[in-house]
Amino acid sequence: MHSPSELLEKIEQAINDIQYPSHPASLYEPISYIMSLGGKRIRPTMLLMAVDLFNGDIQQAIPAALAIETFHNFTLIHDDIMDNAPLRRGKQTVHEKWGDNTAILSGDVMMVEANKHLTRVEVAILKPALDTFNNTAQGVCEGQQLDMEFESRNDVSIDEYINMIRLKTAVLVGGAMKLGAIVSKASHEEADLIYQFGENLGIAFQLQDDILDVYGDPEKFGKQVGGDIISDKKTFLRLKLQELADANDLETLTMQQSPEINAEKIGKVTALYNQYEVKEQATLVMKEYLEKAFAALHLISVPEEQKRELILLANQLMNRES
Questions:
Q1: CA 64, CA 5: separation in Å to the nearest integer?
Q2: What is 4-317's CATH superfamily?
Q3: pTM over 0.90
Q4: What φ, ψ does residue 87 adopt, rounded to 5°?
């Protein structure tokens, strides 16, 4: 069995070995740029961990891992355009560096490149691999659309929110792991179980993200505390507060934005979260999804020792600094 760090090294080496066309340079340079910005590479790593779990060939799964990582970075280029984000992983975003039009085209080509990577898997499993990849990619786009629609809606339910984060975030984790199972020629039942593990872990991870945005240590978590509150983002905490709080308390959510008001708003909304015990309720739901993930993993018929690295990584992901 390989450790996540060993698998990450293989992924980084494979990314470094990719040779994109040299012409037109302005189309392919942005792709090389964003792929070189690094990141945790969680999704391709978990794909390869699924391969290990089912005793598959890691090297044969590299094309699928590259497809997932290329697709993920494609979504980041387009997300950054939609969010008008200036930075990605501390560096200029592609659209800031090359302009919106080039960023859109480079992102489009990345989707093509992802499919080209995937066609390098063994022919016998190409159709189920493509089906899984395409269903995953479509789900991510649906989730992004729902997230944008929620910005202008005041009637978003918690069930709708969970479904949105499932699509936007979790299906890519589940889809990556299912691809690993397919490359390893696991049974349909086991491929579905590892998908359930990944998807439920992804939902739990995003719920934890909602909690840490308010209650995390900014130096350890790496984000501004209260960013979701300032931007009026409809997180689990926000939606649960809207369910529980009275009208007078909810007026706090409509405070205008300015540097001075933002700090006051974060303090007041956090106080309401504490008053209505919203953090505790979010934590309970997060743990429910984590338990669902481990329940699915438990049903996979491989020796427990082969699950050890996957369990360790899942626990690390869910024990980020607060």
A1: 18
A2: Farnesyl Diphosphate Synthase (1.10.600.10)
A3: yes
A4: -130, 150
Residue 38's pLDDT is 85
- Establish whether the linkage from the previous residue to 86 is cis, with ω within 30° of 0: no
Distance CA 38, CA 12 (A): 8
pLDDT at position 212 is 95
* Tokens at 64, concatenated: 């699928």
C-alpha 285/C-alpha 236 separation (Å) is 10
310 touches 3 (CB < 8 A): no
**In this structure, what are the phi and psi dihedrals at residue 235, rounded to the nearest 5 degrees?**
-95, 175
Mean pLDDT over each residue of the chain, to the nearest integer: 94
Mean per-residue pLDDT, 169-185: 98
- For residue 46, give the nearest of 318, 313, 316, 315 by alpha carbon: 313
How far apart, in whole angstroms, are the C-alpha atoms of residue 42 and residue 228? 23
Q: What is the pLDDT of residue 224?
A: 66
What residue spans define the domains of the chain? 4-317
Query: What dihedral do alpha carbons 69, 75, 81, 83 form, nearest 10°?
Result: -110
Nearest residue to 129 via CA among 65, 182, 87, 78: 182
